[in-house]
Amino acid sequence: MVAVIKGRILPVFAVRVYSFGTETVTPRIREFDSYSELQNFIRDSADPIVLPGVTLFLKFPWLGNIGHSLFDGLYPAYVALIHFPPRHLQPFRLLCAIDECKTCQDEDILNRFAGLGIIKHYVLNDMSNGSWFVFDEFVMGGGMMCQRCTQPNLQLPGGVELDGSRLFRDRLYAQHGVIPPTRRYKHSAEGRNQHDVLHAYVMDNKRFTDIDRKEINAAINEINNYTIAHQNKSITDINKLDWPLINVSHVYYDSIKGRKRTSSWFNETPIDARSPTYELIETYFTRQLRLLRTTDIQITGPGTGSMYQSFVPDGSVIINVGGLIPLTPKDQNITYTAYMEQYMASGAPYLKALYYPINERP
User: Fold this and answer.
1) Has this prediction a pTM greater than 0.85?
2) CB contact at 8 A, 155 and 347
3) 321: which strand partners?
4) Which end of the chain has a smaller Cβ tally under 10 Å, C or N?
């Protein structure tokens, strides 16, 4: 609800808060005859609980797929906040219109990303019966800024013109307690030793077939054997090599190992708002970020399996090997080449993307 004095002319408050729907949200307006009447209502009648700082609204009903949760839910909401600097660099809370999901770990990422935690809309609605709540600052309206909202320039919305991809990446790292990736301002070799072995990761993809994995592993062995054969040579000899030295690993996100966890003798007390070790432990997503931060080359396939590509350091290279997608489920012999989510790479100007011509593969 918006409380105003009668006669005040207000702009249109209708905003689009969910990229996958066409409906808009228009807050109810309550008018008062005078400022003193408004003041008496707020102080005496309503006597609300005031939520200080910035609250950012997010609507995304289907959690569980981290790629969509990040770039169809959290990212468009964050881009809306980028329009009001420096709030996007400061802690805020999220008011989340999300479904109840007792097993989704996505909520923890939302919580840490915001800094001031999350409020679930169904909890707020339930507690609003007979109570008033006032948000100090409230930002809502992600509009058409999701990764599935195709733009005429075929770029992730806000990724280039607002530097949204880099800002989103760096905040994810910082809010999870991981030092953000190296910034490179001039060229991809900035801060790199040309004689160092490059780190390449093949990110497993559900669309990889058994034949794909067999060929990928054969290529990994060939590249790694070349590196092993030459990495102990002198710098002069390395400079004469036809190819750079690269160490390639095949990575499954759910099997990335983290640091050895240090336990605490102190248990949670009845008055602790959250676990005493909440900010001191490493989550599954933290482990993934630590790996992505070391990436020089990322090899990925199509679909949401490639959504982490914008989290790599500046100057990194993304290789999308694509996939041969059946034209219809019933006809496995007719396929078309697909890479999917190409706009993610074109919306991240700090990386280079290459697309393997899979249709030319024998």
Assistant:
1) yes
2) yes
3) none
4) C
| pLDDT, tens digit (0-9, with 9 covering 90-100), for 251-285 | 998 888 777 666 666 777 777 777 777 788 888 89
Residue 98 CA: distances (Å) to CA of 109, 120, 175, 189, 216: 14, 7, 21, 42, 38
The three-state DSSP-derived secondary structure of the chain is CEEEECCCCCCCCCECCCCCCCCCECCCEEEECCHHHHHHHHHHHHCCEEEEEEEEEEECCCCCCHHHHHHHHHHHHHHHHHCCCCHHHCCEEEEEECCCCCCCCHHHHHHHHHEEEEEEHHHHHHHCCCCCEEEEEEECCCCCCCCCCCCCCCCCCCCCCCCHHHHHHHHHHHHCCCCCCCCCCCCCCCCCCCCCCEEEEEECCCCCCHHHHHHHHHHHHHHHHHHHHHCCCCHHHHHCCCCCCEEEEEECHHHCCCCCCCCCCCCCCCCCCCCCCCCCCCCHHHHHHHHHCCCCEEEECCHHHHHHHHHCCCCCEEEECCEEEEEECCEEEEEEEECCCHHHHHCCCCCEEEECCHHHCC
Q: CB–CB of 13/27 below 8 Å?
A: yes
**Residue 362 predicted with pLDDT over 60:** no
Give the domains, in start order, of the chain with CATH numbers: 2-149 (no CATH), 187-257+285-360 (3.40.50)
For residue 277, what are the CA distances in angstroms to 158, 173, 182? 35, 18, 28
Which backbone phi and psi does 307 adopt, to 5 degrees? -70, -20
pLDDT digits (tens, 9 = 90+) for 116-148: 999 999 999 999 998 999 999 999 988 888 888
Q: How far apart are CA 36 and CA 2, in angstroms?
A: 16
pLDDT digits (tens, 9 = 90+) for 46-69: 999 999 999 999 988 778 888 889
pLDDT confidence bin for 359, thresholds 50/70/90: low
The span from the CA of 358 to the CA of 318, in Å, is 15
Does residue 212 have a pLDDT over 60?
yes
- C-alpha triplet 257, 75, 164: angle, nearest 5°: 100
